[in-house]
Amino acid sequence: MQLNELVPDSSARQYAIQRLAKLLRHPDDLAYKAEEVRRKLAQEKLLIDAQLNTDVRRQFDDVQEGLELLYSTSGQIGRVKTDMQKVDELCHHAQSYLPNFDRIQQISTANRNFVRAEEFYLQFSEFHQQYTQVREMLTDAQENFDQGNFNLLRLHYFLYKLEDFRNRALGFTGVTDIDSKQTLAQMFGGLDGLIREFENFLWMVAGSMYDLALRNRSNVIVQLLKVVEFEEAADRAQEREREGAAAASAAASASLSPTGAGQKVERVPKHYKKKLLEFIHTFVSSRVSEFFTQEANGLDGITEVTGFVVDELTFVGDAVAPAFPANYFIFDTFVD
To answer: Which residues are CB-neighbours of 137 under 8 A, at least 6 positions away?
Structure first.
């Protein structure tokens, strides 16, 4: 019988030829070692067959276990479906026991809306006072910037609450006439300017990272990054809301309230992380350019330039970079 008939696969046949060539190196080996080789190969075949049988049995056991699990899951789903149908039937029966159920439900909805409207009114009446308080806090932080006696997190918290309330107020479905919309827009008009001032203040803090790190005020840098991370999370949440707007609209409740989740106007994304990294890139480029402009006449050679770069990167790695999250790759940003 030819080897081609015994081993039809070409790769396996090539392996068999190489194996026999190693075992039978001399012409006399065919006479003296053939039986020994046959026994050895027979033992290997038995071992391989046993391993295959074990693996196949294990696979069958896994398949059987998976089928049993699917069968039990199907039964559980059926029981849950039956239970839910029973609950639905009980709810319908309970409603039939109350002849005025629809009226009670309407009164309950109206009561909830009145409560929420009252809460909205109180927030509305306190808006100007809170706005003035936040503006004074920001002005105080700007005037006492060198002392560093300000809390970015507290300032951002109150400003974010004002912005969130403004978005809910402008999206209040009870306000449909143009005059009311214009009145609300005028009332909240100064808030956008305050938000821009706060953003400029953030970049002022970012531009003072070197000085803050030198004065061991890395906590201010951390506060800046906390604000950036919070706004990034809010941007992502806004994007998810925009993507799911159609589904949310289809599933919206018939009961609308001034503080309902679906009543806010769309929040404007801040993109603070992108802006911060761009600001740092511009800041570092300006710092390097200033160094070359001021020291160009006094440089003796590459040694001074190398020393400046090494000192800068060492300071950044030791004092500035530890305040940043790892996913900012801030050291690489300074190097670039």
So the answer is: 150, 154, 155, 158
